[in-house]
Amino acid sequence: MAEIALAAEIRGSKGSPASRRLRTSGKIPGVLYGHGIEPTPLAVESRSLRLALNTEAGLNALIQLEVDGKKHLALPRAIQRHPVRNTVAHIDFQVVRRDEVMNVDVPIHFTGEADGVVKQGGVVEQILTSLAVQATPGNIPGHIEIDITELEMEGAIRVKDVKLPKDVTTELDPEEVIVTGKASRAAAAIESDDEAAAAEASAESSAGQADAASDSTES
Residues 6 or more apart from 10 whose CB is under 8 A from it? Predict the structure, then answer.
């Protein structure tokens, strides 16, 4: 994974009013911490941060953060967003080493079309949107691709079915379901109605047979 250079400045003022002033001026407040570094409040330019987080690596971008003339290898961690605009309101950077194994969530991307499900009126239901993995910073994938072409109705793709990139592992239960093919609500409702109608017809038939038997006995 390529390292992305990002400049930051130490911010002196803390608190909500100071943070609002920073955002108004086009900067995002944040904190740098990890590996013995005293938590350092900082600010990064909004546009530069947006570009850094919109690469193929996404939110797992490996950042070469320059603060007060010193460079720190870091990963974005806790990201707070504006509840309406969804823009970054605050960000934490964690200092990392190139040889340390990190626990990160990597988004899942599907490829292919589950025709076997669609042709039967079913839908593809995604259970997991990301996969918790372990990898060194340089080996963290931007996303994990899963081909759903062979997915069938009532079938499932599980953690054990995913081929992870080299030097990437996961501690999730191998049997945990990631995606499944299932009947749509409309199809399920029709099937339920059909089952109810069949049960009602069977009950009426049984009742008719009982009445006929009773009439025969009385005769």
Answer: 40, 41, 42, 67, 68
